[in-house]
Amino acid sequence: MGLEIGIEWLTLIMFGSLLVLLMAGLPLAFVTGGLACVFLFILGDERALNIVPSRIFPLMTNYQLSAIPLFIFMASMLERAGIINDMFDVIYKVLGGVKGGLAAATIIASTILAAMVGVIGAAVVTMGIIALPAMLKRHYDPKIAMGSIMAGGTLGILIPPSILAIIYAVVAEQSVGELFIGAVVPGLLLSGMYILYVIISCTISPEKGPPIPEEERIPFKEKMRLMSGMSAPIALIAIVLGVIFTGVATPVEAAGIGTFGAIIVAAIHRNLDWQTLREASLTTLKASAMVIWIMFGATIFVGLYVLEGGQQFVQGALEATGLGPWGILILMQVVLVILGMFLDWVGILLLCVPIFVPIVKALGAAAFGLDNPDDLVLWFGVLYLVNMQMSFLSPPFGYALFYLRGVAPPDIPMTDIFKSALPFLALQIIGLVLCMMFPGIITWLPNLVYG
């Protein structure tokens, strides 16, 4: 028989050692999985190790998860085919005459990009390479330029097809399609808030985002011709999201359609060759393997913690704070933001969601003024996605900040990158509060689609 350790001490030892090893720079997947096996052996006996296959196997055979490599492949095909460059170019020329137009173009391009790419890094890096030099050349305020790239780039986590949403739905045992549809309005709301902020601040002080000089602007006919060149990728997004929303296809089938479509779009743009296919496949392999390994490790870790009574401990601790349902919800959001500064998003999801979702369900829909328990789970899921988006922007360890650092000119100090994220972070907090105060922002569209 293994050791008997009280749950309070176990919480401290398990999460303490997790933190120490992560700070030592070890990869999350192997830290969580390795620690879990060590603790399983200490707490139980060799039979306790049977938890490992029994937790991993349901994930390995989960049909929903096959959408992940497909969406990643679709994104990397479109990126390799140079479509993202073309798209920014078009939007940039169409909006160039507006004050702050290029920053707005960056956010719009990122929003469309988010609908193609479920991954954050790709959008921030791509826009950093294409849009940042373009804006700096036009004497844009670097803070506005960098902020709009990071804020726009993080929309990928929210706007479907988001990979985070797929994993969330699998872990919380929820419909992927509903979560996708629930995230549309909040995603567009945030995107709209960013664009308004950029245009208003550039209208107030035009030196922050000057319009393109008259002689470089293009006539309306030329604009229409440029727009028509973008019809293939836009049609692809419309089809992929359309079949999910109408319920014609499951998200996995839609991902398959999208992948096939991406290959065709690359062919139309005359960029389809072995090199492109090979590189896109390798990117997909690396990214999917990383996500799945983290899922394996973290699910054993949390599985063990819940088995030892961690769930009841956390629930008891939250109730003991004496906060009402709203207080507990806000506390959860704060915990997520703090974790978001240190951990990577798959890790946070797998460590928190299995513990948080049952607690939210136990509080009940009525506590938050919702009529339907299904609405409650959906609402919490989208709040979670908005929250993760904040964690990508929050200094000191937000991923978006470091993705941008990698491609920004070396003479821009890191402190400027931090500062440029702050106004957009404030907008995100406003967006999160709006989604909390008015759950209808999230639940209206899914109820409309699914009745």
From TrEMBL:
Transmembrane segments: 12-43, 63-83, 103-132, 144-171, 183-205, 226-248, 254-272, 284-306, 326-343, 348-370, 376-404, 424-445
Source organism (scientific name): Roseibium alexandrii (strain DSM 17067 / NCIMB 14079 / DFL-11) (Labrenzia alexandrii)
InterPro entries linked: DctM, TRAP_DctM
Pfam family, one: DctM
Main subcellular localisation: membrane
GO molecular function: transmembrane transporter activity
Gene Ontology CC entries for this record: plasma membrane
Record's keyword annotation contains Transmembrane: yes
Location of this chain's protein in the cell: Cell inner membrane
Domain TRAP C4-dicarboxylate transport system permease DctM subunit: 15-441
Membrane topology of this protein: Multi-pass membrane protein
Statement: the UniProt record of this protein carries the keyword Cytoplasm: no
Source organism, top-level taxon: Bacteria
Family: Belongs to the TRAP transporter large permease family.
Key words, A-Z: Cell inner membrane, Cell membrane, Membrane, Transmembrane, Transmembrane helix, Transport
Complex and partners: The complex comprises the extracytoplasmic solute receptor protein and the two transmembrane proteins.
Name of the protein this chain belongs to: TRAP transporter large permease protein
Job of this protein: Part of the tripartite ATP-independent periplasmic (TRAP) transport system.
